[in-house]
Amino acid sequence: MSYLMNSSEIIQTIRMIDQQHLDVRTVTMGINLLDCADRDIRRCGEKIYDKLCKTAERLVPVCCDIEQEFGIPIVNKRISVTPISLVAASCASADYEILAGFMDRAAKAVGVNFIGGFSALCQKGLTESDLRLIRSIPRALTDTELVCASVNVGSTKAGINMDAVKQMGLVIRETAELGPIGCAKLVVFCNAVEDNPFMAGAFHGVGEPECVINVGVSGPGVVAHALKECKGEKFDTVAETIKRTAFKITRMGQLVAQEASRRLDVPFGVVDLSLAPTPAVGDSVAEILELIGLERCGTHGTTAALALLNDAVKKGGVMASGHVGGLSGAFIPVSEDAGMIRAAEEGALTIDKLEAMTCVCSVGLDMIAVPGDTTADTLSAIIADEAAIGMINNKTTAVRLIPAIGKSVGERVDFGGLLGSAPVMPLHPGSAAEFVARGGRIPAPLHSLRN
Amino acid sequence: MKAIVSVFAKDARGITAYVTALLAERDINILDISQTLMQEYFAMIMLVDLEACPLPFHELAQWLREKGMERALDIHIQRSDIFEAMHRI
């Protein structure tokens, strides 16, 4: 490939990486584990361990080579696997945490940052295996370091499985009581996607190939930097600037995805067009919203600003990549975004506003610390609200809440590293116990008469 | 393989001579070169050919970084594909 040197382009790229936190957020290898089924759960675990170690052996070294050669950081190398409730369905034992242990050891052996797929898909109903998996989640997440769990409780086609929603309230509560980190590795989805490279919700769907490479890009800092140049301009200019920036970010993700796929001899799946923030200053989605003209993220206008941002990121990114998928959009994890943390601490950003924001952006109520005395019923009701937004709007929504045991509103929970820290946010006091106790299913919505 | 070498530093005498001597020492051919001053900062960009360079890429990158630090220069080397991908349709 011949490149006609253009110094200002080269300097722009280097500045994006060095000063504006441009990186590839994750290269995630999806691995099918359906062939690891066994009646003996330990044997099943051994097969999982062997397959993961063999298939992902070169993932981390290859990503490190790409980082070196292209000078672009790849922050996370991860593995997603077939939902374990499917893999383990024929096991005689219900102690699925044993399998989480094998996954954790395999992830450590190959050197990845996280492994996702301790998952169940039960939007329409719970199989015996789904129930076993859900009941194993608190111990599995507490006893392992790198395993992430997700449960899909609803979809636009199936409606919302309120029995699963009720279970998940109890599971989040129980996981929180065992330690603060477990809940950060647990996501409850509506309309979960099968090719998401981001944690904690990544799993390798059954429609996927044997093995696949999915890449998640990032770059809120780069978008923020570009927007500083358009102060006072019309929204058309703002949207255009975000599109152009998203295009550049995504092209880089596409290049890394192609290289990783070629070197590992594993098919390329998708690039997930995302703006994933980190707690680092200058790498914040909230800062972008504030640059669009809001004094604080969370004030009136935030939903509209986020809608514009989310749409422009997709429009810019989609032409830059051969295959786009995953969650694709801006993420708003409170604890992982310095601007969101500040807005929440000042009381400008509330859970109700966050819920509204999830109607127009990727994913949902993410990394939010709630008071330690929040009941399982309230957690289930929050999940139901968020799942309803996803179901009706035909989009993915998710809930990742952290009940801060022993803490109340205004206190702070620290998770460390990329997970950041979060102030405990207030919830509404009224009980939803009767609502949650009903069980059953909320029917799938009508697809015409859409108003 | 083609790569871009970029050098950033506070302007001083002999930077170009120093860096090009390093490249020559490793049999790296310079195909194109440009340099600018941005305020008091010096920025030099070179398109180079690594065909004859005996070092593996990561060792070369490490060596250039270390040699740069001896003279307070920030030296990067990256495959040129990344710039092509980002700025060309």
Task: Write the SSE topology.
The complex is a heterodimer of chains A (451) and B (89).
Chain A: H1 7-19, E1 24-31, H2 41-55, H3 59-70, E2 74-81, H4 84-87, H5 97-110, E3 114-121, H6 128-143, E4 147-155, E5 159-161, H7 162-178, E6 186-190, E7 211-217, H8 220-228, H9 235-264, E8 268-272, E9 274-275, H10 285-291, H11 302-318, E10 329-330, H12 338-345, H13 351-357, E11 365-371, H14 376-393, E12 397-404, E13 412-414, E14 421-423, H15 433-437, E15 441-442
Helix pairs in contact in A: 2-5, 3-9, 5-6, 6-7, 7-14, 8-9, 8-10, 9-11
Chain B: E1 2-10, H1 15-25, E2 29-38, E3 41-49, H2 57-70, E4 74-79, H3 81-87
Structure description:
The complex is a heterodimer of chains A (451) and B (89). Chain A has helices at residues 7-19, 41-55, 59-70, 84-87, 97-110, 128-143, 162-178, 220-228, 235-264, 285-291, 302-318, 338-345, 351-357, 376-393, 433-437; strands spanning 24-31, 74-81, 114-121, 147-155, 159-161, 186-190, 211-217, 268-272, 274-275, 329-330, 365-371, 397-404, 412-414, 421-423, 441-442. With 451 residues, chain A is α/β, with parallel strands linked by helices. Chain A has 2 domains: 26-190, Anaerobic Ribonucleotide-triphosphate Reductase Large Chain; 217-438, Anaerobic Ribonucleotide-triphosphate Reductase Large Chain. In chain A, a hairpin with a 3-residue loop joins strand 4 and strand 5 (159-161). The longest helix of chain A has 30 residues, at 235-264. Chain A is globular, with a radius of gyration of 21 Å. The relative contact order of chain A is 0.12. Chain B has helices spanning 15-25, 57-70, 81-87, and strands spanning 2-10, 29-38, 41-49, 74-79. Chain B is globular and about 30 Å long. Chain B is of the alpha+beta class and 89 residues long. Chains A and B meet through helix 1, helix 3 and helix 9 of A and strand 1, strand 2, strand 3, helix 2 and strand 4 of B.
